[in-house]
Amino acid sequence: MPAENPDLFVAFRRELHRFPEISTHEFATQQRIKAFVSPFNPVKLTEVGNTGLLLQYGTDLSGPVTLIRADIDALPIHEVNEFAHKSLHKGVSHKCGHDGHTAILARLASFLSRKPPAKGRVYLVFQPAEETGQGAEAVLQDPAFASIRPDQVFALHNLPGYPQGVIVCRPGDFTPAVKSLIVKFKGNVSHAAEPEKGTNPAYLMALFMLASKELENTDPGSDEFALLTPVYSTLGEKSYGVSAGYGEVHLTLRTRTNQQMDVLTDRLLTTLSNLCAGSGIAIETATTEAFFANQNDPDAVEQIRTSALQLGFPYLEKQEPFKWGEDFGLFTQHHKGAMFGIGAGEQSPALHNDDYDFNDNLIEPAARLFLALIEDHHA
């Protein structure tokens, strides 16, 4: 396999696009990646995080250790595109560009196969289950990862709406803390003609949703940024003679920092408790799909900026964090590092849109930027 041919990586990206798999189900994706990168001669290739892969380049145990991460999972979104590489899996497609991120890391593996680090080690992580916030934890807790102590970690995300190839970064908060809250309201059913003989949670649910709106600060530039988005609700059954006795409200919460998430969660649960007092309705709460805030180390950001400019790439320092969550934040909770964005084109459909597709022109420059970061640290 001639590693110098960039078209191979475009073809690989499009193959991944045709066969997407959702979080924690990336079994065939894992094997496709393994087959593609094995000829790039990693020192070691290990399955990690159940459906992910870990590649090692370099063998020096005394030098610096760099980790580069890409995500590999797709989304439960039906694709409307009709191009030749459209998804062949009904209701599942790569609408966040993880197929492209994977191809970038594979291209980086090809570079490292020709010129592995003389000092230290480099690890490439093909991480599953980013979309649900489960993948980073699965990798970090895997025994195969236990002996790796990277002194710097990097990742990227493609950015529709930004000029193609521009590198976007900022020190400190890059992506927010995100958590979804599930609230179950348990009352009692009754005849719809006699609602007083039951306990219908409908009005309590409505009050709770309105009260949650009052806790928002939707300015992404504010240190007190807090976004509470209703994502799902259900109430009763389609039985018009029955007053409902059960309902659910699901909210997604976003704040700039993990500490602010704790404060917001406490305020929301206190509000819920006060509203429910004396109502006769039992409340049950749970959280799911939690993402830690992505904290970019200033030195790592400066390394990204310097390397980008040396390569001739335009660089933009973002003034406020993005509003979408990214589970690479768990890596930056444990290790010094940073995530950056690369512009996918101002006319590109947005992430998670059903007509989105990754811009293949980003594979080569993104891989070269990662390589520059490695060479700078391992010189």
Automatic annotation (TrEMBL):
InterPro entries: Amidohydrolase, Bact_exopeptidase_dim_dom, Peptidase_M20. Gene3D superfamilies: 3.30.70.360, Zn peptidases. It comes from Spirosoma liriopis. It comes from the Bacteria. Keywords: Hydrolase. It holds the Pfam family Peptidase_M20. This is Amidohydrolase.
